[in-house]
Amino acid sequence: MLTGSDLLTKVKELGDVSKSDLVRAAGYVSTKKGGGERLNFTAFYEALLEAKGVNLGETGSAGIGKGGRKLSYIATVQGNGNLLIGKAYTALLDLKPGDNFEIKLGKKQIKLIPEGE
């Protein structure tokens, strides 16, 4: 999914195309359970507004987990060594079971990069 100046460049580059084609070309597409295509218009327009410098702050249920609890954005290593991210976070990112990531380790950080990006 394109963001920032890359997204703005793509939108200008494509010019007068349909909204669906624009969202698809920018990479805001996921696959439904049945194999069909789902265009993520909301995520696309939020990224476009952010790229243009419009900060909407927290909108809707962003940052809200199960039961209406606010997400802490802090993860703790479990006793068995696993690092659990949690369903609320994966839902915010529209991640599905089977999504693969490359793990990049830094000095004090872990980056998860979607496979194929």
Key words describing this protein structure:
117 residues; 4 strands; alpha+beta
Strand order of the largest sheet: 1-2
Question: Roughly how many Å apart are the termini?
Answer: 9 Å
- Overall residue-averaged pLDDT value: 82
User: Which term fits the overall shape?
Assistant: globular
Helical region count?
Answer: 4
Derived from helix and strand composition plus strand pairing, the structural class reads alpha+beta
Order of helices and strands: HHEEHHEE
Radius of gyration: 17 Å
Main beta sheet: 2 strands, antiparallel
Oligomer category: single chain
- Contiguous low-pLDDT stretches (5 residues minimum) are none
Helix content: 25-40%
Assess the beta-strand content as a share of residues: 5-15%
Strand count: 4
Can you put this structure into words, describing what you see?
The chain is 30% helix and 14% strand. It is of the alpha+beta class. Strands 1-2 form a two-stranded antiparallel ribbon. α1 crosses α3.
